[in-house]
Structure of Acyl-coenzyme A oxidase:
Amino acid sequence: MAPTSEGGAEALLPDLPKGPLQAYRSRASFCWKELALFLEGEDVLRLKKTIFSTLENDPLFAHSHGEELCLEKCRELSFLRCLRLLELSFLSMEDMVASPLLVQTLIACLGMYDWSLGIKFLLHMLTFGSAIYSSGSKRHLKYLPKIFNMEIFGCFAVTELSHGSNAKAVRTTAHYDPTTEEFIIHTPDFEAAKFWVGNMGKTATHAVVFAQLYTPGGQCHGLHSFVVQIRDPKTLLPMPGVMVGDMGKKLGLNGVDSGFAMFHKVRIPRQDLLNRTGDVTPEGTYVTPFKDDKQRFGASLGTLSFGRVAIVGMSIVNLKLAVSIALRFSATRCQFGPTDGEEVPVLEYQMQQWRLLPYLAAIYALDHFSKSLFLDLAELQQGLAGTDHSARQAELGREIHALASAGKPLASWTAQRGIQECREACGGHGYLAVNRLGDLRNDNDPNCTYEGDNNVLLQQTSSYLLSLLARHVQGGARIESPLRTVDFLEAYPDILGRRFTCPSVDGCLDSAVPLAAYEWLVCYLLRESHQKLTQEKRSGSNDFEARNNSQVYYCRPLALAFLELTVVRRFHEYTHQPHVPPGLRAVLGRLSALYALWSLSQHTALLYQGGYFSGERAGKMIQNAILDLCSKLKDDAVALVDVIAPPDFVLDSPIGRADGELYKNLWTAVLLESKVLERPPWWLEFSSRKHRMGSLKSKL
């Protein structure tokens, strides 16, 4: 979004407090307010300011520093805060439909404050609500006002105790009874219990339940979704035939009540089948607007992608917070120096730059990808809502499914590694809970697992790419897609003939160079994966065995490289567009190049193995270009953090505060945590025992 007025930036982005960080801010090559306005636009910045100021000024959202809340209190507080958010109504239903990026902004702001709250709100309003909106029809619109005014509270139930990633194999059933025009939702045994369902543990009254749909005569039509009431909204007691409960304490996110449920022949009206892709007539006939099951499944994949697309954004939020803390710390933490009497900020050290600045670049690149993918998904859902059942719509669903299936692993793993690097880069101070890096690490960790195990999800993306190649090889079909992410593969044979030809390090400082290398890498891995699968099948392996034996060094890196290429391409095109203000072009170009080269450098062995690189010069050139870009971005790092960091109340880290008063803020926080003027509650018991031991010794 382009800036609309300079005055808007001043009003929406107040000056940051003066302090030790001013030394770096004064050396920045760009205006951080101009960049924030260019990247986000006034509408997003205004919403952010409203949310952050509301949270800070409402006593219900006050931080409970030094107080360890019990599990029940965590659940209660998170639910009360969620209710308060719904009362505040930052966005109307019309706003959400008209401006999808405002929805993503709202979730990101809540997650920056506390992901237990952000996820609880997201599951109810968006995952549950979006499933009804995009998978249902006009007859289901009655649920949307009830979601907004809290008449009902929702959850999204796919996973079962014995099935997670393999969603097709879930065993909950929905048999249609034409005599009563009802579906009978049933759990055949405890292994088919719905499991790991957020909000289900204590608070959800309704669930979108995925089950195998059976029509009279016993024919199964595959996985479909249904709206099922699981609790009475007035009493929160389970409905007849429903056993529902809480799963207990987790490693993190304990404000989210993850739960389980079993259904014993629970009857629901026929109309509560979410029927966008398939329906059942009152007489029991199954009908679908799609020509074949593949088209229907392709269209439904896009709607199932919402959770994975959301997790991409959630992971980036976690990385934003961690990198903001670590870089502000690094710019004010002074250690060693050229002389005994002089200490320099650790950010001046090349090692610290190399450890942290690529993750800063990753934030900007992945954040742009996350927003663009969110808009792509919104386009798909609007098409479904408009009853678009075209072949293009089904293909768009498949493409978004492939992007989301690799986007979640890339984003969550990047955040996982980045948060740990930030924790270590802050030394011992990073290990203090009050500085929040430990909570960020724990709260990000499930992003690698839920909505599909990362390594399993990558198989979805590689299978998509291999299917395109197979159609091309066997029938001469063009390799193309609605979002054009695979169109470059049409030149597959020519790209494989290319070699690295950059003449100097300076030539590598544009993301066009790694972009070309990535195109070759994806083509190479696609060819190798295809040949490996073919070889496995010729040697007698069945399809399952062939795919299983082709993942580790073939299909897995193929999926990751393809998604990295997509991120690099989208950010390269964004940062090199004519509308980029002149004062921002250099810093955005460096961020684009650094992310692209740093990501590419993790595939150096493959680039040599396949012959794209030859001799030691190519590898060293990439390394030197990364270090050169880190050096060039070092003075911009604090200003780049100012663009992405929330206010101090939300960031909630003494070593990451905007004033940069590192030691003053940390000392104050530790004194508050330790309550030094209070005698610890265990002291009286200790003194009493010590006295008794002394008496016993004297008697002996």
